[in-house]
Amino acid sequence: MGEAGFFNSELDHLLILRATDWPDSWQDKIRGQFPNLKITGLTVDITKPFEETVPKDILAEATVIALNTTKYLPLPESIPNIKLIHTFSAGVNQIIKEPYITRTNLPLTTSSGIHGPPISEWILLNWLVSSRNYHALYEGQKRHEWINARQYAPSGLTDHVGKRVAILGYGSIGRQVGRIAVSLGAQVYAYTASAKNTAESRKDNGYIVPGTGDPDGIIPVEWHHGTSKEELRHFLSTTKPDHVVISLPLTPATTNLFDREEFKAWSSSSFPSSSARKGFLTNISRGPIVNTSALIEAVRSKSIRGAALDVTDPEPLPKEHPLWDVEGIQISPHVSSVGDEYFERALDVLRINLERLQEGGRLVNLFQRRRGY
């Protein structure tokens, strides 16, 4: 195996394994900083093991690999000179049982931090579609009908001034959501796994798209923490949020984290039966964090107003699944992060890590095997 922390751009070989072709210009920043670095880019079928799609000699020569992946990492014995693997995704729950993770201690870094701008805009889009009853306007336009105000907004039309936004997982995505929320006049409540009691602990030390997020952690009006369902229910009952945004990694601890008891704690404490205000759930993380049946029940019973889901359980969602037809639930097929800037930003994270690998510095977005993310 290669030795992490010793990167020589004149001797090392960067192998980029991508699912689609892209312009060579996207790699210009890396070439500009490391002009002697050998770079090989291959377009491969990422649904198959890389040993089946990449020539054996190229895998063996690679010292740094950057890749799209849905379920596989190269086997340790196929990459004897490897020093770092970098993924173009933020979540790695689908590959944590791969031998590179379980049988080596070599570094794996992610592209966490690049997703904040597109995902937060997707969240805002869905908030406004719901709160401004955009469906009625869209259907009216399709019918060529100039609908009146009563048809457009019989009740429940609302803006976000003074609303409470609870963000579960105040990482790069959560911080950009917070930035947008306060611009609407809302208040932000952060919920993290561990306590953030000092100014230093509230800082974002990951990759930050310039001009975005909450680098110093100053946006939330309150910080809360916990890892148990009991602690989550306490958070929901005390903060009484209008919005709950789930931006957590999928781990054994977060699987089925939001279930019937959590919906009950949220809706009963926040929205008395006489209140027209109801909560709205947004999940952009992983589907299994939310119990699908419990979500359907909560929306159909009007315990909450609705939900925006970019992820589902199961995923892909079968055509016959009842979730598709629940009024108030807005679904997209795990595409909230898609945008023209995606891979250029992912390569920028890689560039920073090549620099730190060369200098022996701390890698950005380093996967923590103990935590599972």
Automatic annotation (TrEMBL):
Entries under SUPFAM superfamilies matching the protein: Formate/glycerate dehydrogenase catalytic domain-like (SSF52283), NAD(P)-binding Rossmann-fold domains (SSF51735)
Key words, A-Z: NAD, Oxidoreductase
Record carries keyword Ribonucleoprotein: no
Chain ranges of the D-isomer specific 2-hydroxyacid dehydrogenase NAD-binding domain: 128-200, 226-336
Organism for this UniProt entry: Talaromyces atroroseus
GO molecular function terms listed in the Swiss-Prot or TrEMBL record: NAD binding; oxidoreductase activity
Pfam families: 2-Hacid_dh_C
Keyword NAD: yes
Record-linked InterPro entries: D-isomer_DH_NAD-bd, NAD(P)-bd_dom_sf
Protein name: D-isomer specific 2-hydroxyacid dehydrogenase NAD-binding domain-containing protein
